[in-house]
Amino acid sequence: MKKVITMLRVALIQSRVGTNRKENLENAEKLIKQAKNSGAKLVSLPECFNSPYGTKFFNQYAESIINGPTSQMLSRAAKENEIFLVGGTYPEIDNNKYYNTCTVWNPKGELIATYRKMHLFDIDIPNGITFKESDVLAAGNNLSSFEVNGIKVGLGICYDLRFEELAKLYRLDDVKIMVYPGAFNMTTGPIHFELLQRARALDNQVYVLGVSPARAEQGYIAWGHSQITDPWGKVIAQAKEGEEIIYSDINVQECENVRQQIPIFSQRRTDVYDTIKK
Ligand SMILES: NC(=O)CCC(=O)C(=O)O
């Protein structure tokens, strides 16, 4: 039988991101080491941690996963620090298409998962924010998960948080931790970022890790407030807006406890849901 260690120290790196890729990578590598020195075993960077976030930047900064400078740094950092590293996201180019992609590296520095943002961030809020990722990016079509000490971890990216179907598919695949690198904005972030993470945690009885870049002074201004939420829907760690690492010792046995105490997944009325719309 597979041995599952239920305790895990996680670290979310809310890094500052500027226009210089080399500096962004060096800064991320330094912060990863800091997280490791504080005992973290699962570490995550934010969305677009190596480049500014914006449609005019995606093709300018895009890289191949195979041997690109960002992949090289992530692989090295995972190996040197002997951690599982969720490499936030960066713009990926593959076959002349661009994606917003998350890569995951194991303590040997091997690539063990990739996830391309499935729901592209296309919104238009008058006097708030207009953004259209689909002007440049193609959407991914697959779920992606990996295991840390027998614990299954699922991946989503930012706007994906809004789609409860995606999180539910992961839960049905027995995921215990969802990681969402994400750069929420200053219009929706204050009211939605915490709430969406608590909702996904509560309705799927999973831990949710939401990892934002630090707030910039110009360009796309991220809300920050990276957050760790437990399967009760309780926020157990939350960053402010600047550069910061937040930590938590999570115990995935909590997922099992909540799932037994409030067994909503065995109580779902799929017999009704599946017929009512027909
Ligand atoms: N990078 C994103 O997908 C941003 C999502 C966001 O801000 C939202 O309101 O949703």
Automatic annotation (TrEMBL):
Iron as UniProt keyword: no
Respond yes or no to whether keyword Cell inner membrane is given for this record: no
Q: Which domain of life is it from?
A: Eukaryota
Q: From which residue to which does the signal peptide run? A: none
Please name the InterPro entries in this protein's record.
Answer: C-N_Hydrolase (IPR003010), C-N_Hydrolase_sf (IPR036526), Nit1/2_C-N_Hydrolase (IPR045254)
Q: Which SUPFAM superfamilies match?
A: Carbon-nitrogen hydrolase
State any GO BP term from the record.
oxaloacetate metabolic process
Stretches assigned to the CN hydrolase domain: 8-252
Q: What is this protein called?
A: omega-amidase
Q: What is the lineage of its organism?
A: Eukaryota, Metazoa, Ecdysozoa, Arthropoda, Hexapoda
**By which gene is this protein encoded?**
LOC115887174
